[in-house]
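Changelog note: in this version the structure field was regenerated for every chain. One regenerated record is shown below for reference.
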Amino acid sequence: MNVFDEPAEEPDQIRDQLRRLFRYRAFILLGLVLGLLGGGAVFVFGGPTYTATGEVVVHAISTAPFEAGGVSADKQISMGTERQIAQSASVAAGAAKALGERTDPAVLQRDLRVSNPPETQTLLFEYSADSADRASALVNAFVHAYLTYRQQAAAQRIETTVSKLGDELKPLMAQRKVLDRRIADAGGGAGRAADESERRDLVSQITDLQGRISSLKSLDTTPGDIVRKGDPPAFPSSPGLAVLLLAGAVAGLVLGILAAWVRSVLEPRVRSVADVQDNLRAPVLGILPRRRGGEQVLEVGRSGHGNRAEAYRTIAFRLMHDLRFSGTDSLLIVSPRENAEAVPVAVNLAGAFAEIGNDILLVEADLRTPQLAQRLPLRPGHGRPVPGSWAEGERLTVEAGVDGRFELLPGREVPNPARVLSSPQFARLLNAPSGPDERVVVVTGPLLSHADGLAVAKQGAGVVVVCDLNEVRRDDLDRVWELITGAGGHILGAVLDKGRRGPSLRRLTDGGPTRRKRGRNQPRTTVVAPPVRPGPPAPRTGPVAADGASADARPLRG
């Protein structure tokens, strides 16, 4: 099965990675804008660039054509060597001198490009400058400087060779004069014949040297022909505004995506349902819509049928009918830190359970700063303090609209909250309610601020963790899981609250929470189920106990 499951998860993982990046869309947009501005700045401040082109056909020049050994002229030229000569400092100095430039020849060489098309004896000169006329003047100067340098080098080689041959010819000419005098003075005989034979050999050598000198002097030293003159270009060769903007946009987009990826990797807060499930090791029971200003704590049954009220009803319906959550007599609602409000979740879940027709006791286990009784609509006639144990104190009735009511055990300031929450009286309240089927919903202060929630969790209550998707951190969820499981508690799941809408700039830079498509073994996290409203609760027929709890109740599991 795993062989077939893994490929099915890959599209979800790719989508999740893309969502992680696009949560920080401000970085991507900022990179795109900066890239566009950079491309525009290059176009405005860089100025256009013009490239002029000149083309030369190179001729072979041999100082001794009679010594070529039958090699063709094109084989006597090394185009690689000629290209190096064209880009040499000597040619650059000649070009600068021809134009009267005082610029360092090395600086002029930077914008020169010389290439040799394959299978040709052609050199292509290209020069780029900030104006068309300057590019044309410089490319022509380099072409003429190259031809001049090559012609001067050939003439110098011929002159050197002719000088060497002349030095060889001088003693031969002097020797011939001596032989001519000896032959004139000799009358006849064998001596004269020997001198004449020597003179003939000497004349042959002199004639050969004179012929070679004449051949060298008659050589054509033309280094090449200009087949294309470097005319001023009509259009700039640098990229236009559209190309620069496109290149800047691509570069900026890449940098923006890289910045968004780094931001997502370094982000300590959770940014998706999958992050919460992975760090808390528990499913997400539901996501509460954003809260509007001025809403009361109790929204179920009193604030109409808003999105948040329907979300609470769906979470309560799931807790009742999901077999994995059955078997718990008490439910603890707790948040990791102060920025997630567990009190509204506990109150509205109690109201949603009451709508369905269950008897619910809401326990305010915040024994440090209790104030829930002042925030809820209570039935008139309640509110008198009861001396003695807090867990056995008076219970108040909360009016949850026309659809139901539930009981409230308000908190009371005590010297040692941890001792009270660990007392046998409180343990009996959680595990042995006064009614046979009564269920208890407990809310405490932030778990990571004090140990009150752990004192409740160790009594066997199922825990629901309330997280603010804009603020909760991954290490906080890991710590909550360690504390609750270490205390012997069981995390049923998490309720995610989007909170109030923050400033637009912060939403862009921080990114918003996203949802991942539920996997094969993951619970549905979107709140879409219709409210369960079977009607008003059944009439209470049993006697009312002294603490306000009904003797007749319905089970939480339904």
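Spot check on this record: Confidence is low (pLDDT under 50) at residues 1-8, 66-70, 513-558. Residues 336 and 447 are 5 Å apart (CA to CA).
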